[in-house]
Amino acid sequence: MHVSRSTAAALAVVLTVLAAPAADADPALPVGVQVIAHRGFSATAPESTLAAMDQAVAAGSDRVSIDVRLTRDGVPVVVHDLDLARTTDAEQKLPALSTWRVGDLTLAQVKTLDAGSWFGSGLFTGAQVLTLDELLRDLGPSQVGMTLEVKEPSLYGGAPGIGSAVGQVLGAHPEWTALRTDGSPRVVVESFDWGFLDGMHTADPQLPLSLLGYYVRSADITNRPWVREIDVGHETLSAETIQQARSLGIFVGTWTANTSGDLQRAIDLGASGVTTDQPTLLRSLVSSEGRTATSTVRATAPPTTKVDISASATAPVGGRVPVTTKPRGGNGVGVPWQTVTFQSRLGGVWRTVGSTATDVNGAATLSLPVDETMRVRVLSGGSTSTERGIAAVVPPVVPPAGAPRPALRLAEQARPATTGADPRVGYVATATWKAMAGRTWRSGCPVGRTKLRTLQVSYWGFDGFRHRGTLVVARTSVAQLSRVFTRLYAQRLPIRSLRRLETMGGWSTAVGRALQADAGFGYACQRVPGDRTKVGSHARGTIVTVNPWENPAKVGGRGTPDTWWLSRGRSMPYVHTAANPVVRAFSAEGFAWNGRYGKYADFRNVR
Questions:
Q1: How many CB atoms lie within 10 A of CB 467?
Q2: Tens digits of per-residue pLDDT, 363-410?
Q3: Which parts of the chain have pLDDT scores under 70?
Q4: The pLDDT value given to residue 8
Q5: C-alpha span between 26 and 299 (Å, rounded)
Q6: In 277-372, where do the E strands start and end?
Q7: I need a surface site. Which of 337, 372, 543, 546 has the fewest CB within 10 A?
Q8: Helices (H), 39-173
Q9: Rounded-to-integer distance, Cα 101 and Cα 241, Å
Q10: By the 8 A CB rule, do 569 and 578 touch?
Q11: Measured torsion, CA atoms of residues 6, 10, 12, 15, in degrees rounded to the nearest 10
Q12: Residue 436 near residue 430, CB atoms below 8 Å
C-alpha cells in the first residue's frame, strides 16, 4: 500500500489514527513474519557474497538485506564496511595503500580482491565483491525480495550521486521494481540518512522507501507520508511503534536479532519482518507458530536426477582446489538455489567438508583444501555425483639449461594411496630374497637376509607427484632411514626414484644401470663403479644413494655416471652440498655425507 497525505485535514486524521488504531487494522492480530537474511546467510558463508545470497534463498528466506556503496568510478557494489580490509584481502593485494575505502578504489581494483578466504575454513576462497547489478541478475528469477540500504550516502554524492546510480541499476531490472501480486514491493531502499531518502523520493516518487533507525516516531512517519516501511533496531523496537505504523498499513522491520530470545521477542511484538544472521532459526520459529509470510511464492524445485562434478586433475599440496558442481533435473537443466554438500574421502571414510547453494544457473563452487589422497563427491537432492580424484603436486624439477637428462628412463613408480611419507619396515620376503640372489647378493657377502630389512616410503618425485619406493637396507639403519625420508618428504625435497637394486639388472649391470637411471638404492653387495673395496661400500646395507645422476661419484677427473653435474656450485635442493637440506636430514640421523670422498650421492651410517 502507498500512503499519501497532502492536506492538513488528512494529517489530523493520521494523528488521530496513531492515537487509536482502527478496528480493521488491529495490530494485536497475528501477522506473517518475513525472514530477512542479513547480508545473505552470513552465518554460513562470507557476508554479501554470492554464496551467502544463494544460501539465503535456498534456506527459504523471504528477503535478503544488503548494503550498497559506490566505487571511485561510480559503480554500486554490495559492501557493508567503509573499508574493505575486514572482508577481503585488500591489505595483501593493495599494500601500497594506507586505507582501502570503497570510494577510493575502482571497480577493477575491487574485483581483484578475495572476499571469501577470510571466512571459516577458507571454503569460499576466491569469492568476489558483488556489484548490485550482478546480485540483481543472479537472484532475479528467484522469488526473494530485498532490503537495500544505501550506506553513508553523503560520502558518495547523496541522491544525485549514489542515489542516481542505484536508481539506474534498479531501472534496468523491471523484475525487481514491479510490485508483487499482493501489491507489496519486491525491493525497498532504506538509509539512516533520511534527508537522502527525501531526495530519493523527489527523484522517483514511486520508489519504495524505508526509514532506518534506532527509533522511528509517529512524527517521522507523518512528516514523510510516502514512507512504505520502517526498520527499527530490535533492542529499541516497541509495541507502540509497531501499533502506530501498522495502523497506517506500514511494514515494520527490525534488525539484527540473532538469538532465540531476541527473535521470539520480535515475533511476539508483531514485527512484519526480522533481519537476522540466522534465517533458518527464524524460519523455524515462524513456521512453528503459523506466522509464515504469505507474500513470497516459491517455485517447487524439480527433483535432482544427476549431480555433475568438475575439478582440476591436480592441485598444489597445502593449497586449495575449486570444485564445481551442478545438480540437474530430469530435463538436464541445472537446479538453482539447491543445497549441495561436498564430501572428501579421508581414511577410507566419506566426510562432509562443506556445503553451499547453487546459483541462478544451478552451479556452485567450494574451494577445498588439497589432501594428498584427495577424492571428492557432491550430494544434492538425494543424488550423489561420481567420485573425482585430485592428485596433490609440488612444482616439478626444472633442470638448468644444458643439463643432461638421465641416460636411462624408467617407468614411474606407483602413486601412494596413503598420506605422508608413511615409512613401512618389513622383513625381506622369500620372493624378494630369491630375486636378490645372484643379482645383489652372493655367498660370501658380509651380511645376509636376517640382517636386512625392506623400507617402503613415499617421496616427492621430480615430476611433482608423490610416488612409492622401496629400498633394502641394514636392520640397524632402517629406523633412522625411516625418519630421514619422513623429513625429506615433509620438506618436499625431490627424489627421482627409490628402488631395490635387483630390479635394475644383474650382478654386473645393476649398479651401473641405477646410476644411469638416477635411481636411489640401498643394499648392494657387488662392486660399485669407482669403489676399490672387495665387494663395495654398500655391501652391509648401511649406505644409501640418493639422486646419483645429479650427484655423480668423482673418479679422477671424471664423473660417474656423468661429468656435467660435478660442479657443487649450483644451489638446487637435489644437488648435494655440505649445507643443503638433504645432507642435513641425513646428518640429523647419524649419516655422514660421503661428498668429501667424491661420492656425492652417498650417505653412510656412522652411528
A1: 20
A2: 999 999 999 999 999 999 999 999 999 999 999 999 999 999 999 999
A3: 1-30, 299, 527-534
A4: 32
A5: 32
A6: 306-310, 314-316, 320-328, 339-346, 349-357, 364-369
A7: 372
A8: 50-58, 90-93, 107-111, 132-139, 164-171
A9: 36
A10: no
A11: -90
A12: no
Measure the CA dihedral 592/593/599/600, to 10°. Answer: 160
Q: What is the pLDDT of residue 485?
A: 98
Opening angle at CA 303, ends 42 and 47, nearest 5: 10
Query: Cell 509470510 sits at which residue?
Result: 293
Spatial distance between the Cα atoms of 107 and 201, rounded to a whole number of angstroms: 28
Residue pair 168/189 in contact (Cβ under 8 Å)? The answer is no
Q: List pLDDT tens digits, range 447-501.
A: 999 999 999 999 999 999 999 999 999 999 999 999 999 999 999 999 999 999 9
Residue 332: left if φ>0, alpha if ψ -120 to 50, beta else—which one? left
Task: Name residue 319's amino acid.
Answer: G
- pLDDT value, residue 17: 29
Q: How many CB atoms lie within 10 A of CB 238?
A: 11
Q: What is the pLDDT of residue 591?
A: 97
- Please tell me the distance from the alpha carbon of residue 561 to that of residue 157, in angstroms, as a whole number: 75
> Do 594 and 533 touch, CB atoms closer than 8 A?
no
Please give the Cα distance from 393 to 465 (Å, whole number): 5
Cβ atoms of 3 and 248 closer than 8 Å:
yes
Provide the β-strand partners of residue 229: 210, 251
Can you read off the three cell numbers belonging to residue 275? 533481519
Q: Which helix (H) or strand (E) holds 282?
A: helix 279-288
